[in-house]
Amino acid sequence: MTDNKPLIALVTPLKDEKENIDRFLKTLENQSIAIKCLVIVENDSTDGSKEYLNKIASIKNVEHFKVININFEDTSYRVGKKYATIIDTGFQYLKEQLFFDSLDYIGILDCDVFPEQEYYYKLTMFLNENPTIGISSGLTYTEEGKLHIADPNFVRGNSRLWKKECFQDAGYLIAYTADTVSLALAHLKGWKTETLKSAKVVSREIDVRLSNPQSKGYHAYFRGHTLFYTIFKFLHYTFVKQNFKTGYTFFMGYIKSAINRKPRIEDTKLRKYFRYYMFNKLIHKY
């Protein structure tokens, strides 16, 4: 860290977020520590976001600001490999910059996610004080102050921060559910991942753009989860969340993927990791 000031680079995926851009940038301007670099990767916006971003030359509290415009043949919103490709585009840009070697932390921050003023101060202090933790995030809240119902111990992809050593050691893989896969990559390299409960972000679009249950079923198959895991998830949806339809659709998405022998993640170590995912969670291995 330079003069005890952490150097942070952030990648922001953006599609049709014109109404959020000003508020998003304001949260970064108001951060208690400066941001070394912000890379916004805009893709296929039709609401004027691209044109609006092109008018912004610099951002207060952000030393380097870059907008990358990319296009896809499929212009619809996708949370799978398309999202991961967008994020990786930003990461590849960072790796090409002269300041990359000086960075301490690399993160993702979605444009509809608004961190509190001390967010990055809290996260960098937490990571600095815990040498074995490689990835962290705070918790996500609604505008009304309600905690997101997702697992509070799962490091969120929309506002996470890597130690650069962990980022370089574990890497980032373009894959379905890349957020989950990147945690696995870190665990396999011996890093821990943990949320910081005192750090807070607000999101106006929680769960709006998540994949449907059938896709989630395929994603579980893709990662290498077992049939036992899928049955457990089906029971959890049915009896804990009291949503049989979602559970059934998820389960059938997995079964159909298995019957049709759809593609699975190629890395055998990752498949093994997810095969024993439930057991390792029980023994708190990761």
Structure characterization notes:
This protein has 286 residues and is α/β, with parallel strands linked by helices. The protein has two domains: 8-203, Alpha-Beta Complex (Spore Coat Polysaccharide Biosynthesis Protein SpsA, Chain A); 213-282, no CATH class. It contains eleven helices and eight strands. It has helices spanning 18-29, 49-54, 81-95, 119-129, 164-170, 178-188, 213-223, 227-240, 244-259, 268-275, 277-282, and strands spanning 8-14, 35-43, 62-70, 105-108, 113-115, 133-141, 161-163, 192-203. The chain has an eight-stranded mixed beta sheet, sandwiched between helices. The mean pLDDT is 94.
Please outline the helices and strands:
Elements: E1 8-14, H1 18-29, E2 35-43, H2 49-54, E3 62-70, H3 81-95, E4 105-108, E5 113-115, H4 119-129, E6 133-141, E7 161-163, H5 164-170, H6 178-188, E8 192-203, H7 213-223, H8 227-240, H9 244-259, H10 268-275, H11 277-282
Parallel strand pairs: 1-2, 1-4, 2-3, 6-8
Antiparallel strand pairs: 4-7, 5-8, 6-7
Mean pLDDT: 94
Secondary-structure element series: EHEHEHEEHEEHHEHHHHH
Whole-number count of domains: 2
Structural class computed from helices and strand pairing: alpha/beta
Unreliable spans: none
Report strand %: 15-25%
Radius of gyration (Å): 19 Å
Principal-axis shape equals globular
> Can you say what the CATH homologous superfamily of the largest domain is?
Spore Coat Polysaccharide Biosynthesis Protein SpsA, Chain A
User: Helicity, in percent?
Assistant: 40-55%
Number of helices: 11
